[in-house]
Amino acid sequence: RVGARIAGRAHDLCATVGGPAGGAEVEPAAVRVVASTDPARLDEVVAEVELGGPETILAAAVAARSAAREWAAVPAPVRGSVIGSFGRLVADNADALARLVTREVGKPAAEARGEVQEIIDTCEFFRGEGRRLYGQTVPSEMPDRELFTFREPLGVMMVITAGNFPVAVPSWYLVPALLAGNTVVWKPAEYAAACAQAMLDLLTAAGVPAGAVNLVPADGRATSLGLERALAAGAVDKVGFTGSTEVGRVIGALCGRHLQSPCLELGGKNPMVVAPDADLDAAVSAAVFGGFGTAGQRCTSLGTAIVHESVHAAFVRRLDAAVSAAVIGDPTGDVLYGPLLDARFAAGFERHLTLLRDHHRLSGSTALGRITGATAGSAQPPGPGGLPRNGPRRGFVGDPDRGLYYHPLIVDGVRPDDELFREETFGPIVGVTTYRDLDEAIELANLPGYGLSSSIYTADAASALRFRRGVRAGMVSVNGSTTGAEAHLPFGGNGRSGNGSRQSGVWMLDQVTRWQSLSWDYSGRLQRAQLDTVVP
Ligand code: UN1
């Protein structure tokens, strides 16, 4: 069986969901077992995950191919009903699914519930698309001839997803891919495999047939080898990937060799401009939510606040106060953010912190590094030179020594040459810099070369519109956070953020279908385009 082999029952979703997950019967290749742990309680294993090798991925693609014809033959409105049932099942199991998200990747309860809502919204949109999935009628330049276009499924999609949105982002691929009549190989993040298993169980319970979605947890090396083989064997028609820019380049190159254009949704270093006329309290709230929500681990997280020099001091003071007052910690509670996703993400974040040490002026109450110490809640001990360091934090709930918790960081005075200004950090850090005029702010916003999300706080319509036009981001928010895109608006970026593909809403249909045209002549003679076309 292709699928996440998980010891025991990793989720407590309701009785309608149960039994073995979907996926075709194939012999798995050599595997390794890894533990997916709760990042807030590292000693607790959420699931034992059996990783597939390259052969497992190839086998899953072949299984998806065998299931493709039958699924594509199901009328689109019926496929839409299956998506509708999936959405209802997700809604019926929303709390349990959100709890699993919290447990497996440490996302705070409210945000996890929001993530589940994003699946429901996506299903609501695509259910109806099953009754639309429109093609066009196009006038011909010749008489007695009709032209049409049709959307056709691509065949087999390989979907590779990260664990920061372990259920919502996969649904952005799985739901439209299935609706359009494709079958899927899904490689989730290993440390979010129990969430993936729960999603597959819900899809199966909703009526997605065996073999239509094949779940294969695998490590990075096995994934790229398996994908390479599957592409070479003609077993995969399209790849969808959400994750780092670095891995996106590898996947883009692999697909390019086979003349495929993947859907790539990569990193971001998302700017927020705070204009002199901005509502500063609102801008600070957006910086807190956008920079520190999900512990800064959204691709849309705020990277750098670019603040007009006239309001810079006031902005930093208020941001610092808001962040210092925030409660962080155990994600089952009401916290701003919980632990980092997984040990590898913590290690990556530590690398950024190492580069930051000694290079930046950190704002007054900001501490640096992992939160430790059994007595969280006591004051922060100062480090050398008065700089606060690792240690307990006021406003912490839970056991700091059991989880991957990090202090929130505000780094004031970042410059364009700084690593922190240019690179995505995927952790709870916000950089702050200043600008003098809007052109400079736009230039700073574009400098890192990403192009995913962006924001401006201003009361001036002309500044907002100028920023919208000048910023090279796929998503622009005026007086709102860089995070929190709605599920039916085009989502994606260019530059280091992706290859220009857009997810969500009708735009996603272009990632899961191919256009076919039909020219139908009923003149009874050969009509030659251009040659027989009479243009007066
Ligand atoms: C991601 O981090 O990959 O706009 C997706 C947002 C979310 C999705 C983020 N709705 O922040």
From TrEMBL:
A Pfam family hit: Aldedh
List of catalytic residues: E265
Keywords: NAD, Oxidoreductase
Record domain Aldehyde dehydrogenase: where: 33-352, 399-517
Chain residue ranges for the region called Disordered: 372-394
InterPro entries recorded: Ald_DH/histidinol_DH, Ald_DH_C, Ald_DH_CS_GLU, Ald_DH_N, Aldehyde_DH_dom, ALDH7A1-like
TM regions (residue ranges): none
GO molecular function, one term: aldehyde dehydrogenase (NAD+) activity
Keyword tRNA processing: no
SUPFAM superfamilies linked: ALDH-like
EC number(s) recorded for this UniProt protein: 1.2.1.3
UniProt entry tagged with the keyword Oxidoreductase: yes
PANTHER family: ALPHA-AMINOADIPIC SEMIALDEHYDE DEHYDROGENASE
Family per similarity comment: Belongs to the aldehyde dehydrogenase family.
Subunit: Homotetramer.
Record protein name field: aldehyde dehydrogenase (NAD(+))
Chain's gene name: aldH
